[in-house]
Every structure is written in structure tokens, then in C-alpha cells.
Amino acid sequence: MYDPKSMKAEEFICHEEILETLAYAEAHKADGALIDAILEKAALRKGLSHRDASVLLACELPDRVERMYALAKQIKLDFYGNRIVLFAPLYLSNYCVNGCVYCPYHAKNKHIPRRKLTQEEVAREVVALQDMGHKRLAIEAGEDPIHNPIEYILECIDTIYHIKHRNGAIRRVNVNIAATTVENYRKLHDAGIGTYILFQETYHKESYLKLHPTGPKHDYAYHTEAMDRAMAGGIDDVGLGVLFGLELYKYEFAGLLMHAEHLEAVHGVGPHTISVPRIKHADDIDPSAFDNGIDDDTFARICALIRIAVPYTGMIISTRESQAVRERVLPLGVSQISGGSRTSVGGYEEDVRPTDTEQFDVSDQRSLDEVVRWLMELGYIPSFCTACYREGRTGDRFMSLCKSGQIQNCCHPNALLTLREFLTDYASPETRALGEKVIQAELANIPRDKVRAICADRLEKIVQGQRDFRF
Ligand code: SAM
Q1: What is the separation of C-alpha 31 from the centre of its chain, rounded to a whole number of angstroms?
Q2: Pocket test residue of 359, 361, 363 for ligand 1, highest count of atoms within 8 A of CB
Q3: The pLDDT of residue 357
Q4: Does the structure show a pLDDT above 90 at 260?
Q5: In whole angstroms, what is the distance from residue 377 CA to residue 365 CA?
Q6: Would you place residue 53 in the very low, low, confident or very high pLDDT band (cuts 50, 70, 90)?
Q7: N or C terminus of the chain: which is more exposed, having fewer CB within 10 Å?
């Protein structure tokens, strides 16, 4: 029944296979010899199967757990260096016909104000985001064929890409909207989107059906097979995720990795990113009503094991997590974080933080400038680079560069250049001063003379306003 190459949700996310995996992991959680063998395999940096990774998730031997964390940190450094890419969500509309029981945008919520941005409002949000320094957005919308049809989403994307305010520009629009048809995915692809993101929420079918009692999202197979349709529509960067707290985390972890294995088996390219959201309080949503919440230690272990199991897949942590939790998981393999986020429709433009349309409470409420400074204080290079996508380094081309460890040769200079853009155009004096020191130190570390010289030249041109190159 289990077949990673099948195009049927219930065969590539096979319930029986997950149950057997969990039983196997439980039976071997103290099997030192097996765990050592899996860790040795993991050290080859070629990833792990859902079974092997599940054994590591179940493992209760403290010294082996320490080795997992050390390996995750090393893989993060080898594949992603010390760069962290920054982005912000942009909520377009909270109209929604679905009944997701964890989301305040569910159709039965009659007291939450419903809002949908006009194109003028989208433009004002984008100006506000550009003025913060953002170059990369993830657009978010509820599912509503009347209020938010694909034409509306496409119009918003077009508006976003066309706003050029001062030195600002949004260079990559990632899209997080409900599962749709191949035809619509093709339209999104043609509109020049970056990653198509869709969280599975839960891989457990029975729970999925209960958690999505009404609306088109109720269809488990249609939702689970969405990434295959996205790829058939020409989108080769897709982002997976589960909403931790809905189901048993061990089940979700195995399902997530099986989904990644399926994409790799069928399309020759795994997910571009994996997100790890946890349920948050929101309007009429109380996270304690869900039985499967995970603590910070478990959350950190999951992050580390995703890094080990799919080393070439980016990992995203949003502002759902606090500064402290983000600080803890950054070294374990995170490659992208959001900063200065608003999760309400129209939240960036308004002076007073609006909470009435918020999708969930934001834990990390710092400004983008503060997040950038904090990253540098921790030894990271904040990056606003979007070059891979515009240079066509997506999908399997990105993966093969990443798998060979080469991506750093492009990414590191680009990270420094986009950081310099941020410092010159948007940073506070304090952040700028620290950033300049960081850039000088990092520049000196670029090993190839030619690359270093080009980078130094362009860094200077940015300050002088001669920007005839983009990242
Ligand atoms: N409507 C689209 C869909 O159904 O996929 C877009 C997704 S929604 C704007 C983004 C994600 O937020 C959801 O996929 C869900 O995982 C997450 N989310 C919803 N309610 C949440 C809550 N209370 N706390 C944290 N995350 C939540």
C-alpha cells in the first residue's frame, strides 16, 4: 500500500506505514547500536529516511541526543553558512469559506471583521514593507472563491512587483493560499511567484477531516496532493509544513518526511522549504483546547532532525515563536525567519497595531531593524537576497547546487550586498554601525580573490547609489 511514487495521498502518506514507523521507532529508542548507525548515515549529509529520522526523534539516550544537535548545527553551517534570510507575511484578505477549527478566519466566526485589501491598499502595504527594508514577501489569504479568486491574487502579485518606492522593491513574492487547480498554479507560476507554500496542517487523515469539518479544505486528498498539482503547473519551489499541536508530533514528523520523499521520488526535487508553525492564541482560538501541543525541547529536537533528515531543504521560523525560542533553534538549522511581521489585513500601513483581523498573536514583536541587529549580535548575516530565484536557480537546479555545498559561493557575497543595501537605505545608526563591522569582517573571509574583489566593488557602488545589479 505504501508507495512514495504513487500520486494518491493515502499511498504516499500511508497511515499504516506511519504506524509501523512509530512502533519501530519506539522499539528502538534505546538501541544504541542502531542509533549510532543512523547517526553515521546522517553524518554523510545525504539525509535520512522517515524511519531512521523517527528513531532519532524517539531516542532517549542523552549522549546520542547531544550528537544529533551537534550534527544539525554542523550541517546548518556546511549548507547555509551563517546567513539567515528575512521575509515578511502580507495578509491580503481574511474572507474564508472553510471551517478550520484552529483558525480565527473560519467561516462561522461572525464577529471578526472581514477585510480584503484593494489594490491601492496593497500598494500602501508594500510601500510600508519596502520602507522597513523588506525584499521578500509571503502573501497570505483565506480561501474564498468569490472574494479572493485567483484573479484577485494575481492582480495583487502584479501590484506588489510593480511598486518601486525610493530604493525599495519586492523581488520575490512567495504565495501561501489554499490548494487549487493545475491551471491556477500555472497562472501563479506565470506571474513569477517564488515558493508556493501550503501547510498540510496534519497528515493524520481522520484528524484532518475533523479539524476541517466544512468547506473545500475538508477534502484531504485534494489538499495533500496540491504540491503535485503545483509542480505540474510549473512551480518547482514548494514549501511544506504542519501545524504542530493538532496531532501527535511523531506522526506529523513521519508524515512530513514521507511527503518530502514523495516529491523527491516523483518530481526529482524535494520541498524547497519546511515551516514549523505551532498553534497560537487568536481571536476565538484557545491553543490549550488542542491536546497535542509540544514543549520547546521537543520543538528544538524537531528542528534539529528536520535539518539532519532533509539537509538541502530550507527551514522557516515565523514570529509565532518568541525571541528566546528563535534564538534557540536558529543554530539548529533554520535558514529563514520573518521579521517585523503583522498578521492582520492592512497591518503594516496602520499606525496603531490593529488586532481585530489578526490571524494569530505574534510573539516576536520587534521591528525588522531590531531583528537584523539581533541576528548580527548573534553572529549571523541577515540576508535579503532573492537572486537564486531570478537567476533560475530554483527546483532541482537549486537542489543540486545545494547538495554539492556550492550554494554558499553565490549566497555569501549576495548576503553581504543585500545587507549593505539594508544598512544604507533603512537601518538605524546603531544597526548600521554594527553592520559595517560585520561586512568588513566577512568580506575579508571570502576565500576567492576574484569573488572578494567583485563583492568589494559592488559594496562600494551601493553606498554611491550605483546599483546596476540586483540580488
Ligand atoms: N488559507 C490558506 C490555507 O488554507 O492554506 C492560507 C493559509 S493561512 C493564512 C496560513 C497558515 O496559518 C495556515 O496554513 C495555518 O497552518 C496557520 N494558522 C492558522 N491558524 C493558526 C493559529 N491559530 N496559530 C498559528 N498558526 C495558525
Answers
A1: 33
A2: 359
A3: 86
A4: yes
A5: 18
A6: very high
A7: N
Question: Does residue 212 have its Cβ closer than 6 Å to ligand 1?
Answer: no
Share of the chain above pLDDT 70, in %: 96
pLDDT digits (tens, 9 = 90+) for 239-254: 999 999 999 999 999 9
Residues whose CB is less than 8 angstroms from the CB of residue 329 and which lie 6 or more positions away in sequence, other chains included: 299, 300, 303, 317, 321
Distance CA 310, CA 428 (A): 37
What is the CA(110)–ligand 1 centre distance, in A? 18
Report d(CA 307, CA 274) in Å as an integer: 10
pLDDT at 448: 83
C-alpha cell at 86: 528575512
**Which residues, other chains included, contact 261 with Cβ-Cβ below 8 Å and sequence gap of 6+?**
4, 12, 49, 50, 270
Q: Which of 103, 229, 242, 322 to mutate to test the pocket of ligand 1 (most atoms within 8 A of CB)?
A: 103
CA distance 321 to 330: 11
154 pLDDT above the threshold of 90: yes
Distance 66 CA to ligand 1 centre (A): 32
Distance in angstroms (rounded) separating the CA atoms of residues 421 and 441: 17
The DSSP code for 356 is: T
For residues 389 and 202, the model is more confident at 202
Which cell is 385 given? Answer: 537576497
Cα–Cα distance for residue pair 269/397, rounded to 1 Å: 9
| Residues in Cβ contact with 175 at an 8 Å cutoff, skipping those fewer than 6 apart | 138, 139, 153, 157, 188, 193, 194, 195, 196, 197
Dist. CA 81–CA 405, nearest whole Å:
10
Is the predicted pLDDT of residue 391 greater than 80, yes or no? no
